[in-house]
Design brief:
With about 280 residues, the protein is α/β, with parallel strands linked by helices. The protein is built from nine helices and eleven strands. Helix content is about 35%, strand content about 25%. Helix 5 packs parallel to helix 6.
């Protein structure tokens, strides 16, 4: 991890409880401007939802935070100090964990094997008992519904697999955890299980960044909603913001099916109220 400048800098005033701040982040791929002057702050004990249409820059931003990409312009501040993350390993050492949509689990291994793959407690003589105990501790902290840590990943449900992936990310004691589409392709019960898990991460004081296309899931757990459009910031909203406001920010169009339906509903209610008046 490279810290700039070399001498220990004074902490920056980025707001009380703010763990991670992105300032003016831009990323280009040849002639394509994927991100342009992105501003973002992640606070401890908060779920920040990142939403936007396909091509809005969400995946690029996540990979920039995770160290997969290096920003062309802008700065990153972690715990009040400017840092430059050049690789996923540096991001993990810093305290940023990322769970991508594909989860990157080995289906032929059991829960313990997936949690400690590449992070064995003793690489020269595997401490199977110690790793199993630690696995149970992590899963109990998340109130995971997994019957045994020796069950192969292939036999787990989608929600249980998401739980294992998140538990693995917590081994490094991160301060910020990024979840890329954590409820995608899950059933109703599994989605509820994952949303409960996200709330427990918030209760532990972690800063959680959740990327999702499902507005109902976002409203259920998010404290703030940040909208990206065409690689730029396009608004910060509270969870109780109307669908019309969010859709307008995501699509860039105020006149759409959602807004027209809302207007028709409002007009119908007004007409009904007038009819009820004596």
């Amino acid at each position: 991890m490279t810290v700039t400048p070399p001498a220990t800098p004074a902490p920056l005033d980025v707001g009380a409880g703010t763990v991670l701040t992105l300032q003016g982040i831009s990323k280009r791929f040849g002639a394509v401007q994927a991100l342009k002057n992105i501003e973002l702050d992640v606070r401890a004990g908060e779920v920040l939802a990142l939403v936007g249409d396909n091509g809005a820059g969400k995946s690029t931003l996540v990979k920039t935070i995770a160290g997969v990409y290096t920003a062309d312009d802008g700065s990153m501040v972690f715990d009040g100090r400017p840092v430059r993350v050049g690789s996923p390993a540096e991001a993990q050492q810093l305290g940023i964990a990322t769970v991508f949509q594909d989860l990157a689990l080995c289906e032929n291994l059991d829960v313990v094997g997936n949690l400690f793959l590449g992070r064995e407690l003793d690489p020269w003589r595997l401490d199977e008992v110690g790793m199993e105990v630690r696995s149970w501790e992590l899963l109990q902290q998340l109130s995971a519904k997994i019957p045994t840590v020796r069950v192969p990943i292939a036999s787990l449900s989608g929600g249980q697999r998401q739980t294992v992936a998140i538990a693995r990310s917590l081994l490094g004691e991160p301060r910020v955890i990024v979840l890329d589409e954590p409820t995608a392709a899950l059933g109703v019960a599994q989605t509820a299980e994952v949303l409960d898990l996200i709330e427990r991460l918030r209760e532990r004081g972690l800063g959680v960044v959740m990327i999702s296309h499902n507005m109902e899931d976002v409203r259920a757990v998010a404290d703030r909603i940040v909208v990206l459009r065409l690689g730029r910031n396009n608004g910060v909203f509270e969870p109780d913001a109307s669908n019309q406001e969010l859709v307008s920010a995501i699509t860039g169009a105020a006149n759409n099916a959602v807004s027209r339906r809302a207007e028709r509903r409002k007009a119908a209610e007004q007409a009904h109220n007038q009819e009820q008046r004596p």
